[in-house]
Amino acid sequence: MAFHDIDEDLVGEIDGRVYNNTKGFYEKYFQGRSWSPTVGAIVHNANLANVCEIDYPNPPTRSAVLDWFPEFQSAFIPGGRPTYHTFHNLSSNGPDSYRKPDLFLTLAGATAGLGDDGKYIWEDVQVIGKVKQTANFKKYQKELLKFCELAREVFSCQPTRLFLHGFIIRGYIVELWVFDRSGPYSCEKFNIRNRPDRFIEVMVGYTMMTGEELGLNTFIKEDENGKYITVKEDDATESVRLYLGEVPISYRRAVVCRGTTCYRAKKQNAWRWEFIVKFSWRSDERPAEGQFLKLAAKRGVWGVPRLFSHQDLHSIADLRRGLQFGKPRTFIDSAENKDEAKNHNAEESFKNRILNCLVTYSPGREISAAGSTVELLEAFRDAIKAHMSLYRDGKILHRNISDTNIIITRPSREEDPKGMLIDLDQAAELGGKPIKAMYRPRHLQFMAIETLEGDRDYIFRHDLESFLYVFLRVIVDFSETINDSTGKTSVTRQWDRGTRSQMASTKFSLMDRERFRTLTNEFAMDYSRLKTLAEELRALLFPIRHNSCCIRTFSQYEHEKLYGDMIHAFDKAIDLENSWPTF
Questions:
Q1: What average pLDDT does range 40-68 have in this prediction?
Q2: Which CATH class is domain 364-583?
Q3: At what angle are helices 531-541 and 460-483 packed, to 10 degrees?
Q4: Bridge partners of residue 324, in order along the sequence
């Protein structure tokens, strides 16, 4: 079994590495804290001689431990503190409610974390716990993967969280865990029979941790008007409060990934949402997206968001400071990923990421929210124009064209874009060194064939090929909605399956003129006129030569030709739609 056998959203960009027996774990999280003397006094007053002093069940079956835990909590955890709940008398709601922790910690109060229906809510869960019958390490891998699913649910409902504490009790054996955006890691296991004092220290310690110690993002604060952040406009001297929307407009469900989470935001008493606030964990080898937006603005790029502010907040290296990691346990079953993991392990113990807060002026809505065919086509055309300006004027290559990175704008002037290209966090500045592809599992279905096939230099044509795949997928998705179909049989769904080389082969076979018609035949009647546009775009990128399809190559000096031809194709389709009679 591998991580991706459980749920592709569970792990995101994970390479399958998990660290056990991390040195310094207990000292970092449970010693030298402001509350450590209080916990020490509780342990001292317990006058522990052995495990019998806490009446730990013998035998420690799952049911017996869960029945015993409320008694333990009453005896050793002071009132008014955050509260543990057991799953015995609760059920969950929210996404994937069938995934349930056996024990979980919520904020203080007897009903904290509980909805009106008596179900707990993932937004209030602060620590997760799992109880197993025995320490059967033959099932270790499967149990750990299921535990990761619980962490995923917490991060899904608390997407700006920095990290999450958790614990697994297997009979008498206890293992403590922390999940962050670079992966899970655990302490050295201990035996409750030998260390009942440590068990008390840990369970009481969790209840006394501050929000920062629990892994909450304290950059986000709250007052009577709601949740807000305090930022400075680029080059300004005074700070301003920006109030966030109640729920994010987009977020990732995976744990180990960039954790990109976006909110609408506005100034206090403002009537409209003027800003977009984006939190994301980039690799420490990557420049901040805000730097690319500043560079784009300086160079007069058209069709990309306008920067308000950006700042780095945390790094995984800082969060893990003081810990020593040994050789990781891997859960990988593909030769391709094994090679990647070996290469990665040779360079560093874990992938360091940096949390950045980016604020831009609110540009519009997702391409999937197009209200008409003309609006859709204009947004695509202007997004391609934006890509051209970014490449030609900004000397920047986007490298991450997807259905979520093309948006429909609200232009106030005729010369303003009706579509915009966002999300420059995978961009690269043009220069003397070759540019490589960025492999992002979530967007592989839109990646160009040559970049899927191997270690190719990345050029502007690969992004334009991605525009074709996004356009086709969007039209097919709209067609499925009109035809009330599930889309499971669409040929575009084959782009999501298999290895990268298999995805590349599938895409290339579909670019054949006859096979391509099987794809455009999926267009609903409302979009039948777009078949001609789809074929024109295909022919520009995959011309037929000597009765066979080939990938058209371009040098970096020939970019104007391909950009111009693609934009012209969209202009013709827009003119056709505008000339079509309406009834």
A1: 83
A2: mainly alpha
A3: 160
A4: 23
